[in-house]
Design brief:
By secondary structure, this protein is of the alpha+beta class. It contains seven helices and 13 strands. α2 runs parallel beside α5. The radius of gyration is 21 Å and the shape is globular.
Length: 283
């Protein structure tokens, strides 16, 4: 299966304004943080199992890591599996950055009648671009019609009335509603049968960890001081911003920025190309 890229995964050209070195006084490389530091501000790319709610998974992570605060970015329904970004302690403040990240799902859609293969392919392709959706009746949000963007919609396999598909979409897209709309456009009816989230921005299912991995890694560190496994489970919080365009600043600008000052051009060292007015960036 050929990998498809969400808009945020595409590489950006880095423009270098001036060459500069950083002083260790202003921090350390994210990958050099200790386990204790990661437990105060880290991100877990968790593979959510089918059954529990996302909030229940949060509770289990909090219990495993013995921390006070945990939160997730992008709620998954109980039966949906896959990528569930979970932040720890102060890292929960960074979860809002994932709201702009595109999502990818792989699922099974069940048609209520068989249809022509080519018609199915062309119908799914017709949804690429902007779509208008009303949240499902059991949704936790207000049922207001809203616009969302579909980046790609691939039919991977067809078996009788079951269709294996892959869709890349804007955050907040209802895949259940999308399947119903496909069935309506085909005039045969359809519903979502099974769903797995495979990407949130640049967080992918290939790099997920399970609750068991997390438990084993934490126990090894807590009881034996072995750090490797728990460090594989908890990423530096910067991973939550990996999909955002970057602006690199001078050390001398860091303190002022942290106290609310605006960033002036002399403080910029490097910047990603293509940043537009109003874009959210990582500094």
């Amino acid at each position: 299966m050929v990998e498809r890229l969400l808009p945020s995964e595409k590489e950006r050209k880095r423009l270098i304004k001036v060459f500069a070195k950083t002083n260790p006084h202003y921090g350390k490389k994210p990958e050099e943080r200790t386990v204790k530091e990661l437990l105060t501000m880290g991100l877990i790319n968790l593979d959510k199992p089918s059954g529990p709610t996302s909030h229940q998974v949060d509770s289990w992570v909090k219990e495993i890591l013995e921390v006070k605060k945990v939160g997730h970015g992008g709620t998954l329904d109980p039966r949906v599996t896959g990528v569930l970004p979970i932040a720890v302690e102060e890292g929960t403040k960074a979860l809002k950055m994932l709201l702009t990240a595109g999502k990818e799902y792989v699922g099974i859609m069940r048609l209520h009648k068989k249809v022509d293969r080519n018609l199915l392919f062309s119908t799914c392709q017709s949804f690429i671009g902007n779509v208008y959706q009303t949240p499902p009746l059991r949704s936790a949000v207000k049922r207001v019609r809203r616009k969302r963007r579909i980046y790609y919609f691939d039919v991977l396999e067809i078996k009788d009335k079951e269709v294996l598909f892959r869709v890349g979409c804007e955050a907040g897209t209802y895949i259940r509603t999308l399947c119903v709309d496909v069935g309506r456009r085909l005039k045969v009816g359809a519903h979502l049968q099974e769903l797995r989230r495979t990407k949130v921005g640049r967080l992918k299912e290939d790099d997920t960890v399970t609750l068991h991995d997390l438990k084993d890694g934490y126990t090894l560190w807590k009881e034996d001081g072995y750090e490797d496994e728990i460090k594989k489970c908890i990423k530096p919080i910067e991973a939550a911003a990996s999909h955002l365009p970057k602006v690199v600043v001078r050390d001398s600008a860091v303190d002022a920025l942290c106290h609310g000052a605006s960033l002036a051009l002399p403080g910029v060292v490097e910047v990603d190309a293509g940043i537009k007015n109003g874009d959210v960036v990582a500094v």
